Amino acid sequence: MKKRSAALLLAVLLFLSGCRHKAVELPEEQIQRPEEEEEMTDYARGAELIATAHTQEDADRIAELYGITLVRWTGHIATYHTEEDPRAVIARREDGWPALELNRIITLTDPVERPNKLGRPRFGRKR
Questions:
Q1: Which residues are CB-neighbours of 73 under 8 A, at least 6 positions away?
Q2: Which of 7, 21, 86, 115 keeps 20 to 30 A from 102, CA to CA?
Q3: How far apart are CA 13 and CA 98, in angstroms?
């Protein structure tokens, strides 16, 4: 009975290890990067800043430290709004303060073509 349970557990673990999705690396030319003068326009309006916050209380504390407004806290990510230049808020960081980042919007220029199980592209047809 123990051998059967161990074999079943091993089979389940092997099956589950093969079910993970693999990350797809995008070619650099498919990521549209803003020019320096456009950098201030590539973030989400109304939720310009993001930070890692493990709890709602952590998210509230970050908002208080930086003098910004917490918009939303979900799954350890907090988004914040500020009326100021977001880069100026980020620059206020002092030692020991959690880091803030721009809540950037990144646009793909072309869809990623990954072959399906038959080796054919998922988007469109090759002729």
A1: 53, 56, 59, 79
A2: 21
A3: 37
